[in-house]
Amino acid sequence: MSLRKAYFLIFLVLIVDQLSKIYVKTNFVLGEEVVLFDWFRIHFIENEGMAWGTKIPGQYGKLILTVFRIFAVFGIGYWLADAVKKRHSTYLIVSIALIFAGAAGNIIDSVFYGVIFDGSEHNLATLFSPQPYGTWFHGLVVDMFYFPIWEGELPAWLPVFGGKHFAFFNAIFNVADMAISTGVGILLVFNKRAFPKHA
Fold it and tell me: Pathway, per UniProt (predicted)?
């Protein structure tokens, strides 16, 4: 796979990711939900840190996380260029490109959203607002896809979790997260094709 095709894939993921985030940010109030199907909803939340809302504590926690993500993307970009140069498997190149695009998509939120949007708590956010909600490198990542495929009470006989409320799948995520998960999934499922052993 050529570097040009990898760039096109990255560009496509970034465009879809950012358009979906900007649409939700400017058309939904924080916490608003639209039910498309029982198992698929658009639910607008903002993520301060990493997966499932975990974050690095302290005054500089968000800045440290954003800078770390930027360095990680540079590393992934180098890996991608090296894989293309050495003509590695298309499975590997597609995987790296998806992971790169997903990481870059969430970095865009973290770096820029705090200075181009106002808050979403009570009103629809304004793009390029004169009164932004944050500062550079302190933007919040926009998440919106929610798939509560099954929700209910677990049987009482189950150890530890018996009788408790449970939802599958209860994570809320975005296109960038899907790209990262797909890239990692390809590496895991097609590991032997992504990393063929040459005699």
Answer: Protein modification; lipoprotein biosynthesis (signal peptide cleavage)
Place of tokens 């590393």: 75
Amino acid present at 129: S
Q: Residue 144 and residue 24: Cα distance in Å, rounded?
A: 8
The values of phi and psi at residue 192, to 5°, are -70, -30
CA distance 134 to 151: 36
Cα–Cα distance between 29 and 119 in angstroms, integer? Answer: 9
CA 130 vs CA 7, 123, 138, 195: distances in Å? 33, 15, 17, 50
Specify burial of residue 140 (Cβ count, 10 A radius: 0-12, 13-18, 19+).
buried
Enumerate residue ranges in the chain where pLDDT < 70. 49-54, 198-199
Largest CA distance in the chain: 62
Residues designated catalytic: 143, 177
Q: Coil, strand, or helix at residue 114?
A: helix
Bridge partners for 37 per DSSP: 40
Do 18 and 120 touch, CB atoms closer than 8 A?
Answer: no
The per-residue pLDDT for range 25-77, each reduced to its tens digit, is 999 999 999 999 989 999 999 998 666 566 777 778 888 889 999 999 999 99
